[in-house]
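Morning!

This is the sequence you dropped in the shared folder:
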Amino acid sequence: MPAGPAPTAWMAIVPLIALLPAVLCMLDIARHPRTRTLTPQLWLVICAFGNVVGLVAYLGYGRDERR
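The structure's back. Tokens below.
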């Protein structure tokens, strides 16, 4: 019985590429804790669990221009 496709390097790289924007947004929040609408802690949670919608929301509505 076949157990599925053989693992390849792409199967390890794709999740890392998906996590990279979230990690970059979290680093931005940690470096520049001034945000426009919500607390930095709440933005960290939104970016961690909100996937693409949370990242776009932070970049569009949460990030303070006066950094």
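Headline: The chain has three helices and no strands.

More detail when I'm at my desk.
O.
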